Amino acid sequence: MSAGIHGLILAGGASRRMGTDKAHLEWRGEGATLRLGRILSRVCSRVFLSRAPGQDVPEGWEESEVIRDLEVASGPLRGILSAFEKHPDAAWLVVAVDQPLVDEALLHRLVEGRGEGVHATCFLDSDGEWPDPTCALYEPTFPEAARPWATQGKGCPRKVLINTPSRVLPSPGAILRDADSPEERLALSSLLGAPMDIVLEHFAMVRDHVGLAREDVTTVAPDLACLWEETRRRLRLPFERTAFRPVRNDAFAAWSDPIRPGDRVAFLPPVSGG
Amino acid sequence: MPSLFRISSQEIPVAELRQELSDPSAGGFACFEGWVRDHHEGRSVERLSYEAHPVLAVGEGSRILAEALERFPIRKALCVHRVGELAIGGVAIWAAVSSDHRREAFEACSWIVDQVKHRVPIWKKEWFTDGTVAWVRCERCAQGVPHSHTQPETLP
To answer: Does the CB of B136 have a partner CB in chain A at under 8 Å?
Structure first.
């Protein structure tokens, strides 16, 4: 008899390339962890969120549903092995928080393709090259199989999938793609979202560079970080984001704040009054 | 009641504003006027202009003055910043504080001007006598000093 399946959303990374905690991003107007939690709960008896010690509990989650990383392995392997420490008898269906295209049908396909006598079942990645360690089902025997890598401090479960018995299903294609940076998020958003009409306002050196104080823009950018990336490329802005502050509807905002149709957005350069 | 922080496209009416600081309990008044000077980083300046985010400049400036009234034992505080073109000698910023004693008036006035320079969305553009034009970089950014564009700075 196969073990019961628990769901795990890997959301314990530092999100360095994204610049904002990926657990707080919205996709299609829904929080990333809530969306994946909703999908996972259709195929799993319980769903947990993997977070590093010290990271907050995203909205809609309880601390009791969060599995904190233990001092085992590193990277994604750490989150997975920490989940097994907590519930060693379960099989874990693991999805990464930055995989916004993963849907319920794909999870069903994974569970239906579950191999016998293997440590894990997974797909070939979106390029069809290697086993993809996220959106994969790990069996209770996996921690033992992963031990040689974990004890060396290695963090990539892909190595374990390649070198130990696992069932690898055909690549489902782009649906497995992840968004690690605002640029990648923008690319995936164009596959996901309906374009929105917004107004961009330009100030100071940006206005001089663009030659316009305001412009009507159609965008698929889900948040201000992505809109910056899109705008920077479109207008060839010779500026770094770090010195700028995003403003949405005349209020200071965060780069991770979502964009809604009709919003007025501005990117304010470093100030120089007085 | 008009906001304590104001953006003005007209010459700042210094004498009138001074009246707004009067308070029977105040024993002192400190004021800072920022003037347009004819040089910047060794280059000769002809004139300059300021641009502001109209809503956020008043919002952030008012927040700074409210913070000053909390931080310092002062009676009243007011600040006006110009936008538009200014000639050499023009008053770009005017900040004033009244208080019971002089020390806090000086300190609060200085603090307010520092905060306005680093937090309020106002940008300065300089026209040099050699015909070139440039937006002024954030003072702290240019110095490479770690700083925030959003948080109040602590007192030295």
So the answer is: yes
What 3-state DSSP class applies to B20? Answer: helix
The third-level CATH classification (topology) of the domain covering A182-268 is Ubiquitin-like (UB roll) (3.10.20)
Cβ of residue A211 closer than 8 Å to a chain B Cβ: no
In this structure, what token pair is assigned to residue A52? Answer: 């590093």
pLDDT in tens, B114-124: 999 999 999 99
Is the domain spanning A5-176 CATH 3.90.550.10? The answer is yes
**CB proximity B112 to A under 8 Å:** no
| Residue of B117, B141, B150 with shortest CB distance to A273 | B117
Residue B119: is it exposed, middle or buried by C-beta count within 10 angstroms (0-12/13-18/19+)?
Answer: buried
Model ipTM value: 0.85
Question: Contacts of residue A246 in chain B, CB cutoff 8 Å?
Answer: none
Q: Is B88:B45 a contact under the CB 8 Å cutoff?
A: yes
CATH class belonging to B5-143: alpha beta
At A99-109, the pLDDT tens digits run 999 999 899 99
- The residues spanned by each domain of chain B are 5-143
